[in-house]
Design goal:
Layout (H helix, E strand, L loop, with lengths): L10 H12 L4 E2 L2 E2 L1 H7 L18 H9 L22 E4 L2 H12 L3 E6 L9 E3 L8 H8 L14 E3 L7 H19 E11 L4 H12 L4 E8 L15 E8 L14 H4 L13 E5 L1 E2 L9 E3 L5 E3 L5 E2 L3 H9 L3 E3 L5 E6 H7 L6 E2 L1 H4 L2 H12 L11 H10 L7 E4 L6 H13 L4 E6 L9 H4 L5 H23 L8 H4 L9 E3 L1
Parallel strand pairs: 3-19, 3-20, 4-7, 4-18, 8-17, 18-19
Antiparallel strand pairs: 1-2, 5-6, 7-9, 8-9, 10-16, 11-14, 12-13, 15-16
Helix pairs in contact: 3-6, 4-6, 6-7, 13-14, 14-16
């Protein structure tokens, strides 16, 4: 006997599916844009406010979320802090939209760099919506007070799965991000920068969103991080090995990008063949591929050696410049009669190296390294899934030109990588940068390794990671500099990094 489905066919849905196959360009978040359909079919259509703009459902209400003042305040938790009375670092346990509003007054225009790793909107994410626009203020206040008997925020009510079947899949994500990024921009200094990690699900929308908030003219780069070093053969279509990091500044006219340190591989071609007191150098030809016939000349140096351009080449330097280089001992005369300019390693090192747009895993690590090595060495294996590694954050700190005394903010702190990277960089160069990390006390899953290890919330993981990373840095410093019996900020001041942090809730 034939088996029949007990569910009747949704005729409207069937027709809509077929229509979408014919005209995918007229659909937006599962709904038909009839004005666009008329244009596609060749009919005249009047499109109101026609201009180049990113728009989505309930966008206007996102501005309401920005303007609504917070009723929250921060209270200190010295018992969970390290050197509470002296440290300039801050860890805030709370919902980041509320925290960003609280930070507006004390930190307006004072943050040098922001790094965030927000939800990627893959269709399986639990988004945080205490700022849900359909709620009244009383409903909102009631919801964010939902806690268990130990004071942890309950998952129910705060977290909603943003499924791709949701009619406003992209809009929900944009409504979550817009107010936070808007408020974040207020906190940046004029020469401040922001880095945002994201995958391909929302990078196109995020780029347009950042253009609107920060200005298209302040876009620096879309950095491609090689986050995986292997290909997954079980991938349905393409095995993704990268993530995007959008890089914007607040004011490009004020911002100067940081240069990278040279590697041993880049320096190996520099030698000191003639014991030059200026140090190692590399030969640079005196000629170039481009120029004019009128620029050509020949010159006889005081040592009797003549130089003139090879055929098809043109002088790289003027005659007077060559004479000065000769007088300063910056020319090399080889045994074949050739002449080259000495390019000194000391000069190129001081200029640094321009970064490429692709961040290779060999230089900045990958997700496997960040999870299985860095986190495992501090907290144990499997405590946090796919955290960003310290090497990646160190690269971003250098590109952002975060120097001594600067403040770095991360309001999706996760496992606390940003905090550790700031402390590591301070130890490396003697800086005194400060971090502000914000993390919701989201409950860990009961079956997770983190829960089994005693971490009831993500915020607990982050705080403990910072404590242990600080202890590791302190122990390393003591081995390198035995005279430093303690790295407390009260005793050593600027001679050592600030390894404490104040906890607020």
């Amino acid at each position: 006997m034939q088996n029949f489905s007990k569910e009747s066919i949704n005729i409207a849905e069937e027709k809509l599916t077929k229509f979408k196959q014919l005209f995918p360009e007229v659909f937006s978040e599962g709904k038909v844009d009839f004005e666009r359909l008329k244009l596609i079919l060749g009919e005249s259509a009047s499109i109101s406010n026609e201009r180049y703009v990113l728009n989505w459902a309930d966008k206007s209400k996102a501005f309401t979320a920005i303007q609504t003042p917070t009723t929250k305040t921060l209270y200190p938790a010295p018992e969970e802090s390290v050197e509470f009375n002296s440290s300039g670092n801050v860890f805030i346990e709370g919902e980041n939209l509320e925290v960003l509003k609280i930070l507006q007054k004390p930190y307006f225009g004072k943050i040098k760099m922001i790094y965030i790793d927000p939800p990627y909107n893959t269709g399986n994410d639990n988004f945080i919506y205490p700022d849900k626009f359909s709620e009244t203020k009383s409903e909102y206040l009631k919801k964010i007070k939902e806690k268990d008997e130990k004071g942890y925020l309950l998952k129910e009510g705060l977290f909603h799965k943003n499924s791709k079947e949701n009619g406003q899949f992209h809009s929900n994500w944009l409504n979550m991000m817009y107010p936070r990024l808007f408020l974040a921009k207020n906190l940046l200094k004029d020469d401040g920068v922001i880095f945002i990690s994201i995958d391909d699900n929302e990078v196109h929308n995020l780029r347009l969103l950042m253009n609107e908030i920060f200005g298209e003219e302040n876009f620096i780069a879309n950095l491609i991080w090689e986050s995986k070093y292997t290909v997954s053969n079980d991938a349905k279509y393409i095995s993704y090995q990268h993530e995007n990091i959008l890089f914007f500044c607040k004011n490009k006219e004020e911002f100067s990008i940081g240069k990278l340190d040279r590697t041993d591989e880049q320096n190996q071609s520099y030698k000191n063949r003639d014991n030059d007191i200026k140090g190692a150098w590399k030969a640079t030809p005196l000629h170039a591929k481009s120029g004019t016939e009128n620029s050509k000349y020949s010159i006889v140096f005081d040592n009797g050696i003549e130089w003139k351009c090879p055929s098809g080449r043109y002088p790289r330097y003027s005659k007077d410049t060559l004479i000065n280089l000769y007088k300063n001992g910056e020319l090399y005369f080889n045994s074949n009669g050739g002449v080259d300019k000495k390019t000194y390693l000391s000069k190129v090192e001081s200029k640094g190296v321009v970064s490429g747009s692709i961040l290779r895993y060999q230089a900045v690590g990958h997700t496997h390294h960040g999870n299985n090595e860095e986190i495992a060495s501090l907290l144990g294996k499997g405590i946090f899934d796919n955290p960003k590694g310290v090497s990646l954050l160190l690269r971003l700190l250098k590109l952002g030109n975060a120097s001594n005394q600067d403040i770095i903010l991360d309001f999706f702190a996760g496992s606390g990588t940003t905090a550790q990277a700031v402390m590591e960089l301070n130890k490396e160069d003697g800086g005194n940068r400060k971090f502000i990390c914000v993390q919701l006390p989201e409950k860990t899953e009961e079956k997770s390794e983190a829960f089994k290890a005693g971490y009831k919330t993500i915020a607990e993981i982050s705080k403990e990671r910072i404590r242990r990373a600080a202890k590791k840095i302190e122990d390393e410093a003591k081995r390198e500099y035995p005279i430093l019996s303690s790295l407390s900020s009260e005793r050593q001041g600027k001679e050592c990094p600030d390894l404490g942090f104040k906890v607020y809730k």
